[in-house]
Amino acid sequence: MSDLDSVxxxxxxxxxxxxxxxxxxxxxxxxxxAQVLCDEQGAMQGYFVALAGVEEMHLLNITVEPRLQGxxxxxxxxxxxxxxxxxxxxxxxxxxxRPSNRRALGLYEAYGLHAVARRRAYYPAMVDGKPGREDAIxxxxxxxILRRRRGMD
Length: 153
Prior knowledge:
The chain is of the alpha+beta class. The chain is built from 5 helices and 6 strands. It has helices at 3-14, 21-29, 73-87, 102-111, 143-149, and strands spanning 33-38, 44-53, 56-64, 92-97, 114-127, 130-142.
């Protein structure tokens, strides 16, 4: 099974509105930063996709295998994002998160990211059993601050 097959398996189980195979393939073809986290036996535990821009890194997707959430793997993946941001010369890390994703929001806040804006009707969502939209909380932090907080200096 390819990494993309494993990513798609995790993505489909983790999200009601998952990225498509095309979203991942297009991101890889465009040269976005992508990493997977695997255990000692090679089983995928999580992944991230990020866009390196001019002096910033935009985290587009970060996902931990649902059965393994709450074990610190999200922190390891975020560390990988920060190290990638450093390698790409990014001064700021950005991401969006659903307000309803309390676990992710708590992880990002504990990691050191701060809410800086809100994007209205950003995500597809089910609202009262009907297709609708959910806002996104935009979070950011200088990469150097995140590096210091995590002892990466």
